[in-house]
Amino acid sequence: MTAHFDLTRVPRQPVETVVGNLKATSRHDSTEAAATLIRQARDVGLNLRDYLTLAVDPRQGDHKEAHAELNGYEATLAFLNLPHHNDLEQGVLLQAASETFQTFPGTRALFPEVVDDMLRWQDRQEQLESTAAMVGQSRTIAGTEMVSTIVDDDSDERGTFIVPELANIPVRTIRTSETAVKMFKHGSAYRTSYEFSRRASLDILTPFAARVARQLEISKVAAATSVLINGDGVNAAAPLVAMTTYGADFTGTLSLKDNYRALAKFLMTRAKAGNPVDTLIGNFDTFVELMFMFMPTLNNKDGADAAAMSAIGGPQLQLPIMGGTVKFGFSSAMPADRLMAFSKGETLEELVEAGSSIAENERSVTNQALTYVRSEVTGYKLSFGDTRTLLNTAG
């Protein structure tokens, strides 16, 4: 079973109390302080960024006036002189972070976080493929977790959610199965030479960090897609339904883009069955088909047929360039001519192994060369097995 972390036991202390020893003049003491900090974060199931946000109280200590407007993590970076971008107006230089990492080896525990912040500031790359579009919730676990199952009450008297007077309320039981959630490690790294990290500015790492972040998310999306399609070992694979069942016509050169009515009928059928669809997952080719479904037509002065229908109550599809209520998510792992349709809040849950990412902070401290690593150990399980439908968009 999963262990639970008591975050209320984490004391809120001044920044110098929590991370002051990272600036010890002895390289050995600085490294030992980093190991202690990492262990404290791991013991409560948090990554280093979140742990510092919680454990450091910027309104205490000798630096409370300077850090009053910062959170605990931001106060830590300011205290350790670890900027993530140049601010010439304030005299802040990114090179200062490189010098801090070289002078105090314990501060390297924060190397992955500083590079991530630098990437967000300079690049702001949007992730086309992201599990954020797929999972209803993400939570941290400390150990093995089993796939849960939902058991409906089998009494006829409880077969409706309209409860007659004196009748029993319908009950669903959540049970633990004997099947464990499969966990997979995703990630990659770049290791810099000692000479590079001593002489080069950290912003040189920006394009490399961007690729690490993108590849990590693509790997997670592929794992989540597999569970959506094939099930989690307890809940079965998603049922495959042909779009022609709803009147789609694929004769000649016709394709998904020409079958808005069939797609609308499918969405309404799912809603009528009590499992409304709010998320569609497909590959990039499927996205193009849906995009051209909304292409303006010459014989309709109001725009595309699909847009005109949605304006009077038809289902709306939210593509990255459009607004709406049914959202589209990218997954290059989704097979061709397939569209996964489901209710996001009731379907997929992401489990993140506690301490899986913080191990990479340890590696940054113990290695001679600075190593930028981004990895996560995640698993996916289904909350309900009846909220997904795999739509064949070519037959």
Helix content: 25-40%
Mean pLDDT: 83
Q: How is the biggest beta sheet arranged? A: 6 strands, mixed
Low-confidence stretches: none
Euclidean distance between termini CA atoms: 43 Å
Relative strand content: 15-25%
Order of helices and strands: HHHHHHEEEEHHEHEHHEEEHEHEE
What's the number of helices?
A: 13
Record the strand order, biggest sheet.
5-12-9-6-8-7
Dominant shape? globular
Q: What's the total count of β strands?
A: 12
Task: Provide the descriptors you would attach to this structure in a database record.
18% strand, 4-stranded mixed sheet, alpha/beta, single chain
Structure, explained:
There is one protein chain. By secondary structure, the chain is of the alpha/beta class. The protein is globular. It has helices spanning 15-19, 27-43, 48-55, 72-80, 95-103, 111-122, 194-199, 206-230, 260-272, 284-293, 305-310, 344-347, 358-366; strands at 137-141, 146-152, 172-180, 183-191, 240-242, 279-282, 317-318, 326-330, 338-342, 348-353, 371-382, 388-392. Helix 2 packs across helix 3.
